[in-house]
Design a protein that fits this description.
Strands 1, 2, 3, 4, 5 and 6 form a 6-stranded antiparallel sheet that branches. This protein has helices at about 5-15, 45-65, 65-70, 150-160, 165-190, and strands at about 25-30, 75-85, 95-105, 110-115, 120-135, 135. The protein has 5 helices and 6 strands; from the N terminus they run αβααβββββαα. The chain is of the alpha+beta class. It has one domain: Hotdog Thioesterase (Thiol Ester Dehydrase, Chain A, Roll).
Length: about 200
């Protein structure tokens, strides 16, 4: 099944399955197809992230999150993904994606991801995403009025959830990564600048 067919199937099933509470878990069932494989005949690492996107699409469609975004003319934006691979998925094996909203900070929403086969965990991870307006990233505190009144109590409860230890650790790792990149950029700029101010010329 091509990626576009999978997307159409996801949208169709989201419509048939009906509304889903914001604190519920999306469960999708898929099969490893030949175009999912890498040279080792396992599901390609990149394909996991594509399937995660399908989980996000269903979550948005069924929980009313998409409707809230459209109401305010906001756009969804992914901010990063962290994946841990434990076991491979072989050709034609069936598996499940479990996708749920875990917690939020002032700017980002963190989603929990699990790939399971017959109840056994094959891969797990975190995804963070946000909403973008013309002015930039929308603070999560501004989400409340975008949702229908009947959903606002649950939205408030979701936004009040404490960050989990794995999310805290991921945020710290991202901050360390950004700091290293900035140090590298600073070192590169210093290397490109003559240090003693001497005029270049023949020795």
């Amino acid at each position: 099944m091509s990626l576009y067919l999978r997307l159409l199937w996801t949208l169709l099933m989201a419509r048939l399955r009906g509304p889903l509470p914001l604190d519920a878990t999306v469960v999708q069932r898929w099969r490893v197809l030949p175009n999912d494989l890498d040279v080792n005949r396992h599901m390609n690492n990149g394909r996991y992230l594509t399937v995660v996107d399908l989980g996000l699409v269903e979550f948005f469609a069924r929980t009313g999150f998409l409707r809230a975004l459209l109401r305010r003319r906001w756009r969804p934006m992914a901010g990063g993904v962290l994946m841990h691979f434990r076991r491979g998925l072989d050709p034609f094996q069936r598996y499940e994606l479990h996708f749920r909203w875990l917690c939020s900070d002032a700017r980002w929403n963190y989603m929990a991801i699990e790939f399971r086969r017959e109840g056994v965990l094959h891969a797990a991870g975190l995804m963070k995403g946000g909403a973008v307006a013309r002015s930039g990233l929308v603070p999560t505190a501004d989400y409340l009025d975008a949702f229908a009144p009947a959903q606002r109590a649950l939205v408030t409860a979701m936004l009040a959830r404490p960050l989990t230890p794995d999310v805290e650790a991921w945020r710290a790792a991202e901050q360390a990564l950004v700091a290293r990149i900035r140090r590298g950029e600073g070192e590169a700029a210093n290397d490109a600048t003559p240090g003693d101010g001497a005029s270049p010329g023949p020795g």
